[in-house]
Amino acid sequence: MKRILSSQLTAHVGATVRVAGWVHRRRLLKSVAFLIVRDAAGLAQVVVTDPAARAALEQLTEETVVEVTAMVVATATAPAGVELTDPTVRPLGPPAVPPPFDLYRPALTATLPTQLDNAPTALRHPTRSAALRISAAAVAGFRAALDGRDFVEIHTPKVVASSTESGANVFALDWFGRPAYLAQSPQFYKQLMVGVFERVYEVGPVFRAEPHDTVRHLAQYTSLDVELGFVADHRDVMAVLRDTLAGMLGAVTERAGGALATLGIAAPRVPAEIPAVHFTEGLKIAGAPADEPDLAPAHERALGEWAMAEHGSDFLFVTGYPMAKRPFYTHPDPARPAYSNGFDLLFRGLELVTGGQRLHRYDDYLAALAARGEPVEPYAGYLDAFRHGMPPHGGFAIGLERFVGRLTGAANIREVTAFPRDLHRLTP
Amino acid sequence: MKRILSSQLTAHVGATVRVAGWVHRRRLLKSVAFLIVRDAAGLAQVVVTDPAARAALEQLTEETVVEVTAMVVATATAPAGVELTDPTVRPLGPPAVPPPFDLYRPALTATLPTQLDNAPTALRHPTRSAALRISAAAVAGFRAALDGRDFVEIHTPKVVASSTESGANVFALDWFGRPAYLAQSPQFYKQLMVGVFERVYEVGPVFRAEPHDTVRHLAQYTSLDVELGFVADHRDVMAVLRDTLAGMLGAVTERAGGALATLGIAAPRVPAEIPAVHFTEGLKIAGAPADEPDLAPAHERALGEWAMAEHGSDFLFVTGYPMAKRPFYTHPDPARPAYSNGFDLLFRGLELVTGGQRLHRYDDYLAALAARGEPVEPYAGYLDAFRHGMPPHGGFAIGLERFVGRLTGAANIREVTAFPRDLHRLTP
């Protein structure tokens, strides 16, 4: 008999079926016992009345893996409208050692550190697994949106020869006796690949040796990277980002509806055109001094409120950040060279995505590095490609865990990360 | 005027259009000059007769990025049946420095090391980019096949606390002052996640500090990992692998047909049921002594020939490899415990995929490690999950570059890798 999932029971009323999963909970009442089996699709309620079966059930600790062959009966009072009766319960392994928290309670009551120390079992809790299902759906939507726009998926090196981009916060590595570093982003590689495919994306791990212990930072996270060529300026990039976000949230709704329901949330609507304000205008709206070089968190929150009040939008683009605050490869605004063709996307007043147009002329790179007093040598291999013809281009990067964290309202990014890596945590 | 791609020209005969791309080649004849523009979709031929335009064209070196506004004319003698006439050519950057090889020749004549040293330009050659397009299509097919079978995509740590699995061939890392290692595979994590989602997959980088310089090994490659629970034995895993492979090759044919044509190859057919032989039977077929503990490359070749002759199949499963040759987490064949429930998939006589059923009981892990004289401690965090209830499960891993290399008949795996990492190579 082929195993069916708990979600398929309603289609088998009156039939004998086989289900399998984990002992989620037992309720041993006086006259009857209930066994709740958890599988990938949800829960199934098994009714045990036979004394021998009940005695066996008493030995089956929570999280033991079992197989149940039983009759499906429609019961209005059962959680899913069906239950399994007259069961044969067969353990598929020894009785489980119960985890240090009850997985059957609506919320995981253990502290986050305890959850993270016991991730393999904590992640079995529906609230924790729901966030990871939303994550998988968001990535599927990301890819589908870009595949539909002729982007090509790439895979780039995660170990590099020089600590480019920021210099600080890199992990050092011994590469066959040579010094090497974990890649902080695929930035340079995705730009180079614009020279090959024009439009590329990558989903992969990036590494930041963040010395700070915050609720927003991970030392390894999943970066959703996009880069496209033949843009007029950053606005072409923003249009692709808008469509990509809509695709991601559409896929979350479509593919992870159950997970959204578990968490009691809905995916926000992405406006057909996301409102955009220039950085200088943003300062005014936020009531900040006109000479501020960047937006503080309080300013971002004020802008988020403004976007909702003025445009009914959870999202807001802030464009034209000062060049001084953006990386050296950022393209300036030709009309106002102190400001960039770079943008941030705020989601409910929090920065969610950074992107912009990049420099595409070799000489501009040399000038940008010289102006910052940075040497050319560490970037030589990367810059060389710009001597061989690169189109105007730009792109953006979305931190997957940050995206899911904000969507789900998680207080700590580690709540939506299966096995986080940070200053203190290297296991499990 | 919106830019169109070279592949869209035939739909615009008689109209003025804008195309953009790289100067692929110029042919300066006496009475006429041709400019071949390469974009993401292919080539466009531009006819230049105006003397001033010709003089300008003479300054546009190969690989310069240009935008061309011109009239589309149907011409039976032109390569694609259309060409662009009366053009206005505008460079989108300074004249390019030509790469150290001609990208317009049918084959890249530069040696592989020269190509790899100049990867950002070498990858622009249609034969090199075709392999990467096939790669992207194969991964898309991999995901689609598994998404359709209720698998959930996961992202696992690439930095781990102990050098598990093999002990040798790991890259050591400084993690905030603590020793750490690059993950050689997501093996343990994907098994743990079977406890959460039952069926999971991951596409991500893995790292092997291979001290050998061969045409088959990379120090970083992309691993396509799958793991599923509630299997009867390894045959359930093989069935999923068969469907996954069919999905991958179907997607390659569907999404990368042009790339296959560029390379002059076709995707092989995956039989509805891939033939399978037990290891002991395989030795006999290959004419090897019955006490051989493993299949040598010559044996695999012989088996590949046999599969084609007997079953008309490019693929062959070899099951039941001796336990002594498989990793400690391998599940033995209950009927013949010296042999495993592990398998290899051969493609045209070469090992392409390794997989099998895994142990799922904590005590079995302890016994397996003890039998090998291995300590439990480095695996403690991983093994702990098996005390909390794990179903019978198994999985497999496909090396993406190896898969594409064999599909395309590449002599060296580096030919199908954008920016390979190996014993000698850490740049670009």
Automatic annotation (TrEMBL), chains A, B:
Q: Which reaction does it catalyse?
A: tRNA(Asx) + L-aspartate + ATP = L-aspartyl-tRNA(Asx) + AMP + diphosphate
Region listing for Aspartate, in residue ranges: 187-190
Instruction: Give the Gene Ontology MF terms in alphabetical order.
Output: ligase activity
Point out the coiled-coil segments of this chain: none
Chain positions recorded as L-aspartate binding sites: 165, 208, 354, 358
Q: For the site Important for tRNA non-discrimination, which positions are given? A: 79
User: Is the keyword Iron-sulfur assigned to this protein?
Assistant: no
Residues bound to ATP: 208-210, 216-218, 351, 399-402
- E.C. numbers: 6.1.1.23
Per the record, the similarity remark reads:
Belongs to the class-II aminoacyl-tRNA synthetase family. Type 2 subfamily.
Which PANTHER family did the record assign? ASPARTATE--TRNA LIGASE, CYTOPLASMIC (PTHR43450:SF1), ASPARTYL-TRNA SYNTHETASE (PTHR43450)
Q: Give the quaternary structure.
A: Homodimer.
Q: What is the name of this protein? A: Aspartate--tRNA(Asp/Asn) ligase
Instruction: Supply the source organism for this entry.
Output: Micromonospora coerulea
**Organism lineage:** Bacteria, Bacillati, Actinomycetota, Actinomycetes, Micromonosporales
Question: Gene encoding it?
Answer: aspS_1
